Amino acid sequence: MGKNEKLVAIKGMNDILPPDSAMWEWFESKVRDLMGRFAYRNIRTPIVEPTALFVRGLGEVTDIVEKEMYSFEDKLNGEHLTLRPEGTAGVVRSVVENNMLYDGGKRLFYIGQMFRHERPQRGRYRQFHQVGVEALGFAGPELDAEVILLAHQLWKELGIDGVRLELNSLGQPAERKAHRDALIAYFEQHTDVMDEEAKRRMHSNPLRVLDTKNPAMQAMVNAAPQLLDFLGDASKAHLKTVQDILDANGVAWSVNPRLVRGMDYYNLTVFEFITDKLGSQGTICGGGRYDYLIEEIGGKPAPAVGWGMGIERVLELIKELNIQWQRPSIDAYAILPDASLLPQAMRVVQSLRSEGISVQMHGAATAEGMGSMKSQFKKADASGAHCALIFGGDEMQRGMVTVKQLRDGAGAQAEHAIENVAGWAQLLRA
């Protein structure tokens, strides 16, 4: 690459620029507010983790571990490290390492970047962002229902409709083993219709064969033994309680016996929220119970349940549905006819900001001056500001600033004393 050649971002790792970044902030504020009402507390874990965490936690023969992780060897000490491809394993590692369950269960949430070696496409990127919730140390099915209700409530508050909820149960290890043996025996009788990927996974991870997108295999997969038929009474009762709580809250659901999710750590309840508006990337939230992962990562055995939500896909859906979101507004725009007034004007602006008022400076001072008043008013109007602050020379000599309305009551204006900013600041709020 030449010395002066323009450098660009890695394909599939995108800049988030204004005004789009304001939409992200709006979404994240909605999430944080809702998490607080459900009593979930924020956790922030490193982007880079030991590779072994994901190999052990997600499963050695999962797509993520086999194909999608960004892994490398640390040049300093030879450690094998990986950019996190999902959030749950890192949260569990942190909970175990910091002995967070010593005094009972924890409800946690995270927001952050994840990384997978993908072929970039709509809603699927190499760097993407997730919101996730993890309820750790709780065994009851009411927690499965709670995390589902949390996601469902978020759809309501974002104005998203048309999202369907699919449920399944993966049972307990003994039930899964019996089903696994039956699946392998079944697949061995139908290798003639299986692609090479399915044949490779048939013995190592047969559940993932059920998740195939190959049209030629659909009829065979649809007739495969279903895990629901291998569930014992306790597993069935767990799923039934989840369904009853959802029914009591008016949340529609359907059972999808082929729903298995992509990670090995799940047991009992698994679920996905799916939209038909985003094509093949229609799953916008998914998760389930993972009662054995904490022990797998080195902690004392403890139950847990959670979900992950792709932020890019949710925002894409909001745009697709043309949902109106609350854009940030500016209270005031500062207009100066004379650059020599900048020190005094900026003292007033800083005082207003200290009172909680958002003010945008014109910011175009040059050796030739500040630009014409007409051009400044044009930019003030384009900024969306509620009003303009006019720092005229005569007014400033009298210790005053003129406030002119740009929206409600447009054109109306009044003078206010510079030394009494606190007394009139709130009149500027949009």
TrEMBL record:
Pfam families to which the protein is assigned, alphabetical: HGTP_anticodon (PF03129), tRNA-synt_His (PF13393)
Lineage: Bacteria, Pseudomonadati, Pseudomonadota, Betaproteobacteria, Burkholderiales
Gene name linked to the record: hisS
Principal EC category: ligase
Matches recorded under PANTHER family: HISTIDINE--TRNA LIGASE, MITOCHONDRIAL-RELATED, HISTIDYL-TRNA SYNTHETASE
Primary residence: cytoplasm
GO-annotated molecular function: histidine-tRNA ligase activity
Leader sequence residues: none
Ranges where the Aminoacyl-transfer RNA synthetases class-II family profile domain occurs: 1-337
Catalytic activity from the UniProt record: tRNA(His) + L-histidine + ATP = L-histidyl-tRNA(His) + AMP + diphosphate + H(+)
Matching InterPro entries: aa-tRNA-synth_II, aa-tRNA-synth_II/BPL/LPL, Anticodon-bd, Anticodon-bd_dom_sf, His-tRNA-ligase, HisRS-like_core, HisRS/HisZ
NCBIfam families, per the entry: hisS
UniProt name for this protein: Histidine--tRNA ligase
Family: Belongs to the class-II aminoacyl-tRNA synthetase family.
Statement: the UniProt record of this protein carries the keyword Chaperone: no
EC number(s) given by UniProt: 6.1.1.21
